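Quick one, probably user error.
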């Protein structure tokens, strides 16, 4: 198994919770489990009353995925590593995003074979779930507008996010929008048509 690196800010809390190894993370009884691709998933876990986390697990990195990355002229990496890079990039750009608590990647000959990423879970709801629960039409419209403005800010900041699904816009307690599942985000300036297509993609799934 591979080593888990702890962010200094969260080292003490993770030690108290005995979550200092990859083995410990993989034994968590995760809630609200998600599967992004075969072998790639994650879920939530309540560490303490004031701390909920989200764990990404990428434990079956196939040779097909590695070869596909090379064909696309990209160096292969695990989904958890891409998520961590996306978080760091968007955090530096001023977007609201989850905090990285711990990470680990096992590589063979510099090629990724497994990866994990532990995040502090955001407090709030994915946009579609929020809209289903919110009865005030003004609040609903204001929240959708906030998500639209966030997507526009991404575009104006030079980011392309293929996974700009409504469920990846997270409505926080104060009504602000945070972003989740950002492993596909990359630096790319969009022309007017591409920007419009992104909004159409977002609206079609709202």
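Nope, works fine. Designed sequence:
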């Amino acid at each position: 198994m591979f080593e888990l690196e702890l962010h200094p800010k969260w080292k003490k809390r993770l030690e108290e919770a005995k979550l200092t190894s990859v083995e410990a993370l993989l034994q968590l009884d995760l809630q609200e489990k998600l599967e992004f691709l075969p072998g790639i998933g994650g879920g939530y876990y309540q560490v303490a009353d004031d701390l909920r986390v989200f764990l990404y697990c990428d434990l079956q990195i196939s040779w097909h995925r590695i070869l596909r990355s090379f064909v696309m002229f990209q160096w292969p990496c695990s989904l958890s590593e891409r998520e961590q890079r996306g978080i760091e990039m968007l955090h530096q750009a001023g977007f609201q995003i989850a905090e990285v608590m711990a990470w680990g990647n096992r590589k063979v000959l510099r090629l990724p074979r497994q990866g994990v990423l532990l995040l502090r879970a955001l407090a709030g709801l994915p946009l579609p779930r929020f809209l289903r629960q919110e009865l005030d039409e003004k609040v609903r419209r204001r929240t959708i507008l906030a998500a639209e403005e966030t997507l526009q800010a991404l575009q104006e900041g030079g980011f392309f996010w293929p996974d700009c699904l409504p469920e990846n816009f997270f409505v926080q307690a104060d009504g602000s929008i945070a972003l989740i599942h950002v492993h596909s985000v990359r630096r790319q300036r969009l022309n007017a048509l591409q920007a419009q297509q992104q909004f159409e993609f977002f609206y079609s799934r709202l």
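The mean pLDDT is 92.
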